[in-house]
């Protein structure tokens, strides 16, 4: 049921689909869908929190054993590379996120506040981890503008990746990584 909602929201946006559309896609009644999700808004919350945010976390990166993932402090550029690689494997969810982000400009959208608070929430979440950054940067708190810019650039690169003709998301991010975390300044910290 939630897979069908992901597909429909990705294709049509939240405002362009209905609970009946989900029911039709999975072959059950509208009441059956509502019995499971409660409401269209609850279905959206389930899709967003249980699907989109379920992959690519710093915890998952730490457990990956990839270069820069630990066991002590993690490397932030390496984590972002991991996140991009995760996103490259879930095109429909990236499209879902992008559609919802644009729709949420409307103050009446169920995720309006969620997306409005997203930059601060990301910063707070990432601040709960120990990152190894170059001494010249200072403290983790000094990374805040760079973290914000990195997330904004990632959102933009992902939008370009969703368009035709397709680009290689990981290759494009590698070029952005060189801009955001230039060598030799970030040597040994990427």
From TrEMBL:
Keywords for this protein: DNA-binding
DNA-binding region: 18-37
Pfam families: TetR_N (PF00440)
Annotated GO MF terms: DNA-binding transcription factor activity; transcription cis-regulatory region binding
InterPro entries: Homeodomain-like_sf, HTH-type_TetR-like_transc_reg, HTH_TetR
HTH tetR-type domain segment(s): 1-55
Highest taxon listed in the record's lineage: Bacteria
PROSITE patterns the UniProt entry points to: HTH_TETR_2
PANTHER family, alphabetized: HTH-TYPE TRANSCRIPTIONAL REGULATOR PKSA (PTHR30055:SF226), HTH-TYPE TRANSCRIPTIONAL REGULATOR RUTR (PTHR30055)
Protein name stated in the entry: TetR family transcriptional regulator
